[in-house]
Structure formats: C-alpha cells, structure tokens
Amino acid sequence: MAHYEAVIGLEVHVELKTNTKIFCHSSTEFGADPNHHVCPVCLGLPGVLPVVNKKVVEYAVKAGLALNCQIAAFSKFDRKNYYYPDLPKNYQISQYDLPIAEHGHLEINVNGANKYIGITRVHMEEDAGKLVHQGTISTTPYSLVDYNRTGVPLIEIVSEPDMSSADEAVAYLEKLKAIIQYTGVSDCKMQEGSLRCDANISVRPVGQAELGTKAEIKNMNSFKALHKAVSYEIERQIEVLEDGERVVQETRTWDEARGETFSMRSKEEAHDYRYFPDPDLAPLVIDREWVNEIKASLPELPDERRDRFVKVYGLPEYDAMVLTGTRELADYYEQCVELYNNPKLVSNWVMGDLARMMNVSGQEIQDLRISPHQLAKMLELLDKGTISGKIAKTVFEEMFKTGKDPGKVVEEKGLVQISDAGLIDKVVEEVIAANPKSVEDYRAGKEKAIGFLVGQVMKSTKGKANPGLVNELLKEKLGK
Amino acid sequence: MQLHYLTAHQLHDMLVSKQISAEELTRAVFDRIEQVEEKIRAYVTLTQEQALELARQVDKARLAGETLPLLAGIPVAIKDNMCTKGVRTTCASKILYNYIPPYNATVMERLNEARAVMLGKTNLDEFAMGSSCENSAFFTTCNPWDTNRVPGGSSGGSAAAVAAGEAILALGSDTGGSIRQPASFCGVVGMKPTYGAVSRYGLVAYASSLDQIGPFARDVTDCAMLLNVICGHDPLDSTSAPYDVPDYTAFLSGDIKGTKIGVPREYMGEGIDPAVKEVIQKAIDVYTGLGAIVEETTLPHSEYALPAYYLIAPAEASSNLARYDGVRYGYRAGEAEDLVNMFMQTRSEGFGAEVKRRIMLGTYALSAGYYDAYYNKALKVRTLIKDDFDRALEQYDLLLGPTAPVTAFKRGEKVDDPLQMYMVDICTLAVNLAGIPAISIPAGMVDNLPVGLQLIGRPFGEGDILRAAYAFEQNTDHHRKLPE
Ligand SMILES: [Zn+2]
C-alpha cells in the first residue's frame, strides 16, 4: 500500500454563537421544546422576508480573519434550491460564488512536523430543521419536524485538499476548532452539533499528478470517528483500485457501530441546486474600517499563545502546544502559574493528573470543580513538605472530585506527612524486626532490598511518612 | 351622488364634517357589493363584520374629538396576495385555499394605523401570474364596463372593485404591469411605485426583484393619499429603501409648464391598436396645450423586455413557490405513498396550468448548463433596459405612452395562447425590470372601453408623475366616467 497517497479536504460547519437567528429575531437557544424558537420568517411562511443579522456577518468576518483569510469587500447571499421537509422554504440561503472570506490557511503539527493547510473559503448560511422519526427513517410511519434549528447561523469552512492522512485530518480539525473557539464565535461542540465535519477523500498512486475520484464522507460525530472513517475510507479506496476497479464519486456515510463507510446511493449526487442570487437580500458591502475594528478585537490565537508559552514560561514546545489546545485550558494553566510560579511543574500536573482525570470523567475545563487557585495551593503544600508527592496525588484526586480546598482534604483525611523522626524510628525498628530476610539481603549487598523495606514503612504509616527520612533512618540502622 | 362612487378625499371631508359616519359609508359600500358582486365577482373573501367594527371604532374616536388620519374610515379592498392576520389569504390558488396568516403584511399594518377599513380580499390571477384574472383557481372577475370582458390582471379584482364602486380604494401588486394594466382596462388610476418604495413584507412573493405593491383609486388625489400611507422604509424588508417620503398630495399643483415629456417610439409602434394610439395622441395634445414639451424618444432594447422578463420572473418564482409542498400549511394531497409523492401530488394538484408553466420555465432557466445562456443573459438584458431608461430620463422628466396595447379583451379570447396573453404587458414589463415608478390614468374610451395613459418617471420620482397625472385629470373628464 505504500505506493498510494491519500488526498483529503474537509468541509466544516460551525454554528455561530449569536443570540438570534441569521435572518430573524428567533432565539438560537439549544434544547428548547420542539418548534418553540420559531417565527413566520424562519418558518418560511408566505410573504416573509429575511433580514441579515449583522452579528452573523461580524462573526463570520472574525472567523475568516482568524483563519488568515482575505475578507471580501463585496459579498452576497444565494439560494440553494432543493426539496426537504426540514427546509421550510425548500431552499437554503447560503453563499455561492462570492463568499465572505477566502484564501486562508492554518498550521498543523503532526509527529513534530509543521504543515500549512489551505482554507479555500468561509461562507455564511442558515441551518435546516430536524426530522424526528418514529424508529428509523425507512420504517417510520410518519415523521415530525422541529424547526428550532432552522435559521441558526452557520459558517462553512472549506479546506484545500492539502491533507494526506487521518492524523493530519484530525490535527486540522483540532486546530480549526481551537482557533474558532479562541475567537469566541462558536462553542464548537461536536456532540451538540455546533461543529460538523464532512471529508472529501481520494487516493492516487504516488507520483501521479492527477487527482483520483473522490468520495464525500458524512456523519462523523467525533474526532475519533473522523480518524477511523478517514483511515477506513483510504484503505477501502486503495483496495478498490488494487482490485482493478474504479472508485465511484458518491456520498458515503460513516457507520460508527460497524466501523465502515457505506454508499448513500448516488441519486443524491444528481442534485442541481440551481444557485442564484437571493433577490430578497441586498448584496453586502463590507466596510474596510469595520474589518479592521474586528481584526483589532481578535484575541491572542493558539499559535501565538503557544509561542508565548515557550518564550515566557520556558515550556517545551510540546507542552505549550497541548496547553494552548483550547482557550479554556490555556487560561486555566496561566491562572495557576500566576499563583504558583513554577511553570514546568504546573504544566506537569495540568497535562498529567488533571488531563488524565478529565479524560476518565469526561469533563471539560469549564466543568471542573478544582480551581486553578486550589491547584496552586496544593503545590505550595507540596513545596513546604506538608504533603509528600505521593499523598499529593491522593489529595488532588479528592479535590478533583469534591472541589474542596487542599488544606481541608489533608486535614479531613489525616494526610499530613509524618516528619517526626521519633515516630518513624519506631516503625523502622518494627519493619527491620519483621523482615530479617530482606535485611540480610541488603547487608549482603542487594541494594534493591531497601526499596522493599521503605515500602513496608510507608505501608504501615499509610503513606504519610516522609520517604526521604525513612530512607535515611533505614540506612543508618542497617549500618551503611 | 351615491357614496360608493365618491372619492376618498370627498368622503374624508364628509366624515370630518359629520355629514356621514364611517359605519354608514361602510354599509353603503357593502350594499353596493351586494348589488353588483354577483356580476363582477371582484372578491375572494369579504370581511363585513370586521369592517363594520373598525368603522364603528373610527366613529367613536371621531366623536371623542380625536383628530384622525386622512384615510380613517375609508373602505379599502386588498389584493388576496397580501397577508392579513386572521383573514384567509389564498393568492387565488388551490394550494393556499385554506391558508390563514398569523401576521399582517407591513402595508396592512400601515393601513390599520391610518384606520382605513378593509372590505375584503380581491381576486387575482393565481400567484399574480397572468393578465386577465382568468388564472384564478376560483373564478374569473368581470370587467365592470363589459362583463363579457376581462378586468385585466393580475390585480383584476382590485381594479374591478374600484371601478364598480365596490371599494373606494384598493391595493394591488405589480410585477410586470399587474396594477397598471387592469387600471387601464377598468378605467381607474393605478400606480406602481419605485422598487423599494413600499415594503414587500407580507406580500406573497411571485418575482421578488420585480414585485411592488401600489394603489388603485378613482382619481390622482386619492392615489397620492394612499401612496402617502403605504410608502416608506421597513426594517423587515432588506430591499426597502431608506428615504424621506414626501407628502405626495403636495405635488398636485396642476402646473406642468416646461415639463419635458418623452414618447418612446417603441410604445407607439407596431402591436399597438391604432384606436389606442389615437387616444394617446390626444393625451399628448392635452399636455402640449398645458405647456409641456413633448418629443419622441427611444428605448432601443424594448423588444427584449418580454423575453428577459419571462426568464427572470419565472426563475425567481420557481424558487419562491417551492415552499408550497403540503408539509406545513395549505393544500396537501391525500393518499400519497411517500414523501416525494406527497410533494409531487400536492404541487401537481394544487397549482394551476400557468403557475406550473412558469415554475418549469424558471427551473429550466436556472439549471446547470442553461444558467448562463438564459438567466444570466436575461440579467444582462435587464441592465441594458435600465440603461435605456436612465438615458431617456436624463433628457426627459417623464416618459409617456399607452399602458396596454389594447383595451379589455373578451373572456376566453387569449387563454389558449400564452404568448398572446404575454403581449398585453409589452408596455409595462420594462418598467419593472428597471425598477422605476409608473402610473396608469384614464385617458379616453374606445368602443365604450377605457384606455389607460402610462406616465413613467425617475426612481423615487412619484411626485413628478402625480403632478403630470393630476394636470391631465384637471383638464379632462375621463376619470369621471362610470360604468353602467
Ligand atoms: Zn424566526
């Protein structure tokens, strides 16, 4: 298979976080009762007209700028015509040949290598509603329609076909998500559908200039799914070619349960959307000064922040990259460092125990009970020797679960480190008496045997003994 | 004189001086409707109870000493393609036969603020597609001057209602002549304002870049009064123009000395009935006599207006009418086996022949591979037509010609020949493509049928048009003629 290469481009839909819809005043709130956030305009009733929400244009411009795009001076909305019951007008207001932003790029890092991925365009459009089936779409006796999502503003971000592996596709989507989140124009929650991704994938023999026939893959609802689907599809297409057959241009859907992509029938492909300029909306003339204002309002973006972390905190490139992966994580880290000035140690805790426990519990930074302030205080206790490194892990776990202050956890659980030589001395005596074999081994030159003895002391003090002190005392008593 | 044949400004004076009450006036017009509606069939829906209630409220307010707007208590008919909250709005289509809007069109809000009294909803060609009212899914409206003849279209119901004394004023919509041509056929005043002057919010769209709401009236003063109420920027319509609306009645001075009027030779040439031409020629003489300078001019791309219109309007319509699918409101075909069949059967049974013809035409014009050859080329022609008008209106204050090439034709005469039917609009279509204002006023009769004079003005030059129209009216009595 080494003599094939994949060509991958992504189309990403991002829901903009405006209070109201793109062409009316209905709310964009998620999770309301069906058909609660609707009005004549987003229901497409006879006679209604759209009026563009200026905030949507502002957010689209902001996203475009963050993705290094050129912002159009003149842009317009077009109608994309197709029939579907979740689309009340049976056309979607979108942008066809004059999108709001074009010619951008972002930088990804895969296996230590940096790569630029081109952004073809960013355009604005309205979301459709949602069909509610009784069971599956093919067996349902009837379907209900919820128009709450209808008219929620979206931007579609189309990449150049610059990626060549599943890893790169995931890295691109992660970076894109981070950048958009940093700008604050979207939550980018894949689970809630505020970030959706389709992939165009083709393969070709290495060295062939001409692109292979592509398939469009839909329905990938997580980064994991994206990785699996892209990997699967690349292998599938290579197999097709190896078998001497041809790849069919079609839309395929990712079936997470079966771990396969399968064809959605090429009938869908025959669509002629008959795009034409929407006569209900005047073209957008974008004021340069306004664009400059929006540009000035952009926050520090992931790449800049990463570079600053390296420079200011002296972090390794990798740490800086991970910590700046989301705005929230980077904020958390910086708040912590501000209170406890040991950037690398904080980084180790945030990337280590905190990340691990977040992974296990499925929590996001904004859901955490443990505050940066509490983490900093715990690190101080560690510094002072109030708790050992080992106990710190226990304390941290408890803080993570309960949100209690480290001091309180230590007190409640009696976890203060025992540094009283007299107390430890007694236990050491007992351990030596109870383990003559190990004592003998040690004396015979088996250095490792002391580790076992230290462990026994820690065990009987429930981990509270100061490990340095235990070591010292043992060596002293065993005559070395 | 019967109340139903008086003008709004006369009736306003009578209401203010308490010679009559609004309720009496409304009752008088409904009496007239009862008397003639069987023959004319102007209305799809009458709202008598609601109208009388509104009229009583106006009377009460006036008795309480409130100063009311000029149109307070004046009975108005509304074309049935403008949304009226709680009142069926059908577009004369089977597909919307039971549709009751939950909101008011902006023009309705404005009429309500002006405390005008809506009488009901008038007949039209289905979705405003047609020139004779014969494309109504329900029934055909008759011309009050000769009930064997059509009232014109698509706003035939509104025009006939005003002509027959079944309304004092009316609103219509004009996409290619749909106000002016029926005004011409029915011998009333009808005006298409500049695109963007009147909000389209709540007007059920036929061709969005061409549609414009405008007034029907029995004289120019009434036309100006109604225009005052409906014009103005609307934040709900992105294509509505932010501009300072003047008081249009202030233009009615009668003085047009020195006004330069161009007569496009294309509007006085082949295809225009010689008898109609003669009436227009006499109108030109009136203007010359009043001190206007009337000269021949040219709009060289006129012959392309009709083909361009019949690509642009259907293209927009094919998309605008896509929403009528039986899913949310209106007619839904029963017994469809699946979704796609429900769409197809609903639309196949719900739309009439002309609507289907235009949907197909427009779908074709926008299709991949044909877009550039048809739709895009039509847009370029549209620009050329606009340029023609720009040039002509640089040189002349107004352009003058017939509104329609013929007088009202017999019912059934052109129904089997769509092209013949389309030709009736050759003098009006180009004005919509250019987005400029124009009026049709009664200019004389041919064989006891009215002939309309069309005056075309610069963008937002409604005032200049009204000034010239008023001068003509003051010096002729065509507008005083009434059908029997
Ligand atoms: Zn809405």
Looking at this protein, list some descriptive labels.
heterodimer; A: 480 residues; alpha+beta; 3 domains; nine-stranded mixed beta sheet; 40% helix; elongated; B: 484 residues; alpha/beta; eleven-stranded mixed beta sheet; 11 strands; binds zinc ion
Description of the structure:
By secondary structure, chain A is α+β, with helices and mostly antiparallel strands. Chain A folds into three domains: 4-291, no CATH class; 298-413, no CATH class; 421-477, Orthogonal Bundle (Arc Repressor Mutant, subunit A). Helices cover 40% and strands 20% of the residues of chain A. Chain A is built from 15 helices and 16 strands. Chain A has helices at 54-66, 166-183, 223-242, 288-297, 302-313, 317-323, 327-339, 343-361, 372-384, 389-402, 406-413, 421-434, 436-443, 449-460, 467-477; strands at 4-15, 70-71, 74-75, 78-81, 91-94, 101-110, 113-126, 130-133, 143-146, 153-159, 195-205, 215-220, 250-255, 260-263, 276-277, 284-285. A nine-stranded mixed β-sheet of chain A has the order 2-6-7-10-1-11-12-13-14. Chain A has a three-stranded antiparallel β-sheet with strand order 5-4-15, with no helix packed on it. The relative contact order of chain A is 0.09. The model of chain A has no long low-confidence stretch (mean pLDDT 90). Chain B is an alpha/beta fold. Chain B has one domain: Amidase signature (AS) enzymes (Alpha-Beta Complex). Helices cover 38% and strands 13% of the residues of chain B. Chain B is built from 15 helices and eleven strands. Chain B has helices at 8-16, 22-40, 48-63, 106-113, 156-163, 180-186, 220-230, 274-289, 305-320, 339-350, 353-366, 372-395, 418-423, 429-434, 462-474; strands at 43-46, 75-79, 117-122, 169-174, 189-192, 212-217, 260-264, 293-297, 398-402, 438-446, 449-456. In chain B, strands 1-3-2-4-6-5-10-11-9-7-8 form an eleven-stranded mixed β-sheet, sandwiched between helices. In chain B, strand 10 (438-446) and strand 11 (449-456) form a beta hairpin. In chain B, helix 5 packs parallel to helix 6 (180-186) and helix 9 (305-320) packs across helix 11 (353-366). The A-B interface holds A 40, 43-52, 79, 81, 83, 85, 88-91, 145, 272, 274-276, 279-282 and B 81-83, 89, 91, 96, 99, 101-103, 105, 200-205, 207-209, 235-239, 315-316, 318-319, 322-323, 325, 327-329, 339, 343, 363, 366-368, 371, 375. The structure holds zinc ion. Residues 21, 24, 26, 38-39, 41-42, 151 of chain A line the site of zinc ion.
